[in-house]
Write a structure and sequence with these properties.
This protein is an all-alpha fold. The radius of gyration is 14 Å and the shape is globular. It starts with a helix and ends in a 16-residue tail after the last helix.
């Protein structure tokens, strides 16, 4: 899950700065085996558009599962509630 959160931070910084290329240390640990052939090239470098789709898909899955939540959303609840 840490890789997913780092990926979101990388994407946010790229969008703010207007960057086009992913940094060399862009997280890939959140990419499932089934996604790897489409996201990573032969050298293991991620393709940005495919990486973004994979990142958003994984974020959607984690939100649905309740592993990640958005503070202030209607469904947010602290664990102790």
């Amino acid at each position: 899950m840490a890789g997913l959160l780092r990926g979101i931070a990388v994407l946010k910084s790229l969008n703010v700065a207007g960057g086009q290329k992913l940094p060399q240390d862009a997280p890939t640990s959140f990419i499932r085996k089934s996604w790897r052939p489409w996201v990573l090239d032969a050298e293991g470098r991620p393709d940005r558009p495919a990486w973004e789709v994979c990142l958003m898909s994984e974020l959607r899955d984690r939100l649905r599962a309740g592993d990640i939540w958005v503070r202030g959303s209607r469904r947010f609840r602290p664990f102790d509630a």
